[in-house]
Amino acid sequence: MIKIEHSAGRSPTRLLAHSLLLCLLMAWGSCLSQTAAAALGEPQTEALSKAEPQALLEALDTGNFRAKGDAAQAIADSDAEQKTRWLQALLDGRLGKERRGERFYIITDDSGREWPIIDAITFEDAGSGTRRTVDVFRINNDLRTRIRGLLASLSLSAGDEASRLSAAKRLIGEISAENAASVRKMRDDEKSPSVRDQLDIGLALFEVQQGDAKALDTLRGNLDTRVRNTLAPIAAGDSALAAEAQAVLGGIESKRAWYDRAQTLFFGLSAGSILVLAAIGLAITFGVMGVINMAHGELIMIGAYTTWMIQQALPGQPGLALALAIPGGFLVAGAFGVAIERTVIRFLKGRPLETLLATFGLSLILQQLVRSVFSPLNRRVTSPDWLQGAWQINEALSLTLNRLAVLLFCLVVFAGLWALMRHTRLGLEVRAVTQNRAMARAMGVRATRVDMLTFGLGAGVAGLAGVALSQLTNVGPNLGQGYIVDSFLVVVFGGVGNLWGTLVAGMSLGVINQVLQPWVGAVLAKIIVLVGVILFIQKRPQGIFPPKGRTS
Amino acid sequence: MTMTDNLERRDRSRQAFLSRSTLFTSAALIGAMLVVLILNALPASSALHVSGATVSLLGKYFTYMLLALAVDLIWGYLGILSLGHGAFFALGGYAMGLYLNAQTSPLAGWQSLMSHFPVAALAVLLAPGLLALVFGWLTFRSRVTGVYFSIITQALTFALMLAFNRNEMGMGGSTGLTRFYELLGFSLASEGMTVALFLASGIAVLLAFWLCRAITVSRLGRVSMATRDAEARVRFIGYRVDHVKLALFVVSAMIAGVAGALYVPQVGIINPSTFAPLFSIEVVVWVALGGRATLYGALLGALAVNYLKTVLTGAMPDAWLFILGGLFVLVTMLLPQGIAGVISKWRGEGHRRGEGKGRGSGEVPARQEVSA
């Protein structure tokens, strides 16, 4: 089952519960208008129905939690139209009684010292109350579970399929002897198969709790956390049921472990794709010119700042801004690259160590420039809606959309570069100069022009990396610095000027890092990777895919 | 006396330990120490009095000069650019920091050994030395050279920075080691100690300068310069290039370690930021500005850049990175021989020095840097 969840602001379940409530209230509202129309002629019944809610709420005013639970049950069983709202307020600890009086209130906001309150029966504004004037009904954990079950079965009996489905999901682990019968009845009445499945899981879980081993079959391979949490204590015993539950639990655990691995792989690949984007430009320039561009990280930063600036220019249209930022980041960073090549690197030809130092100086200047022009503070680039949230594949596996997009973007950029290198004249010349500069020049390749264009291309790709990065982290003057050492490792690991090597190296470093992280922590994982690469180039100084044949 | 004899004698004198620049530099160092000593002894009311804070600052410059010597020894005379020499500096500093901490509160585990000065002094030399030995053995054996070597040294210091930031290392985490009160039973806060540390740093610079000078005029030094200029050729002649490199690299790391050890009591803190790649690469620009492959150039460069830094970070903190960055670019493009190059040109002997020529990787095509 595939579901897209938006995780903006509040927790998704909370949001869902609220919208559910709204739907229900509207449904009841329409019922109410019908009954009100029918009851117009009979003033007595109206008085009676007004007295009844009062009595229902009175029953809650007791110190005994069991009695309070029964009162909540009575509310749920009654046909008072406010009952969902009452139970929700009770659950949230927002239902209370006037200290000296008979009125009941719902607290709409309990964050401050003075609470805005509404009348619990009429929902009319009742001014404000405080801790001194309103006695809030207190509940304990058992009661909380019971109320949750009540609320879920309430929403199950009405609403559209989506709200019923989420209600059924919430019932998992909440079914008790009190509501099992009603849930069973609802399950038999339910038309939607997916809702029925969820109810079956909830009921099976309840039956297992009651000691029914047969019900375990329904739970086999279920990934819901609550199923696991409920099964764990059952499996801890030493009865026959426990052994079977243990087996089911083992199956669930191994299935979860697989999805966890898939999740780690995904995170690794997405981290790796950033590395690839950052390193591939470096790999090209290093390959063609033998030049280490220490300002490469700052070109990434320029790409990210371009994204931010375009977004500032187009407020409210993050999607369009991002679409424009892709060519924009490429062009701006590329222009910086060409400028660096023309003004500095050109004059340091054949002196790689000096080039390294000069470009390092440029990186310091660019960083300070950004700090002075913008600010030393980090900037936030808002992602368009379609990049927020996650692609929820199942309970155990959800892929964040922005990371997925970066991964795809990286592959697209890689494919584009590969095609450029393979099928264009520039690519041909670049490869020729990479292999043997002197020979290429002898064959009529204008090496200096190739240098300039390659450098611009590498810088442009760095800009693209910056655009991608702006969707994952905040944009700041130090953005590039964090990636420079890693990108060099990728280049060294993958082999100089080798596109495939860079791809494989970047992705594997990303994955290795992610795999190590839970074991040894982020810092140690990084150290292990660093040491690993240092040891690796002992064996293969030319990277994973050493160039075949003779190079000059 | 024939013409050839004459040339040979000149050639020999050129390589002698006591050249004019050696004498001059030694005299300048000793003179500077004496002058500071005398000016510091003057009564505080005197206009020429040099305060303890200034003496301490000058002592810090001396440790930086020591570090610059270490970098120049391998970059200038061996042609390998280490972007991770701050790591050796910091290791020496941490060894000293542990010793200083052990004076006030006993340390746990193996660190308790560091409370003895001889052990600590040994650690100051051995910690950077052993790291350089292992790291150098691994890299030189597989002929990692040129920019590859630079990048890997940078990765090394980066990894160490991450490691020392961890509290589990027992090195104070990101705060590092601080709270130093006593050294060899004397209070660190006293003016006498400040002057003593200043003198110790100055003498260390002098000794390291003579050591480097002795190395560079020795056979080892000549092979190393040959390696710098044409590594493959030296190897084909039959020299073990990797051994030469390893020897100089270890010596250089130890000098850096001593520099760190002298730096820590004068500054009062050592923390993982000393491992930051930026610091190591700054050291390289000191050497580049002063003049690579001249020992006095390295000393001069360290002094000049750090004095500039002290003045500018106080006056215009925002401008400092512009200026430092600008120095990197301008020195590499316009002053490839640094201040020392300007001085020798000014004295009309720009082409006299053997070590001034053949700027290492300079004449070697880029692709040959990556020798398999």
From TrEMBL, chain A:
Subcellular location: Cell inner membrane
Name of the featured protein: Urea ABC transporter permease subunit UrtB
Pfam families, per database record: BPD_transp_2
Topology of the protein relative to the lipid bilayer: Multi-pass membrane protein
NCBIfam families: urea_trans_UrtB
Main subcellular location of this protein, as a coarse class: membrane
Keywords on record: Amino-acid transport, Cell membrane, Membrane, Transmembrane, Transmembrane helix, Transport
GO biological process, one term: amino acid transport
Family under the similarity heading: Belongs to the binding-protein-dependent transport system permease family. LivHM subfamily.
Molecular-function annotations in GO: transmembrane transporter activity
Recorded superkingdom: Bacteria
Transmembrane segments: 265-288, 320-340, 352-370, 404-421, 450-469, 489-512, 519-537
GO cellular component terms listed in the entry, alphabetical order: plasma membrane
Protein source organism: Salinicola socius
TrEMBL record, chain B:
Topology class, membrane: Multi-pass membrane protein
InterPro entries: ABC_transp_permease, ABC_transptr_urea_perm_UrtC, LivM-like
Molecular-function GO term, any one: branched-chain amino acid transmembrane transporter activity
Signal peptide boundaries: none
Gene Ontology CC, one term: plasma membrane
Membrane-spanning intervals of the chain: 21-42, 48-67, 74-97, 117-140, 147-164, 184-212, 246-264, 284-308, 320-343
Coiled-coil segments: none
Subcellular location(s) per record: Cell inner membrane
Keywords, in A-Z order: Cell membrane, Membrane, Transmembrane, Transmembrane helix
Pfam families: BPD_transp_2
Record region (Disordered): 349-372
Ranges of biased composition (kind: Basic and acidic residues): 349-360
Keyword Ubl conjugation: no
NCBIfam families: urea_trans_UrtC
Name of protein: Urea ABC transporter permease subunit UrtC
Species: Salinicola socius
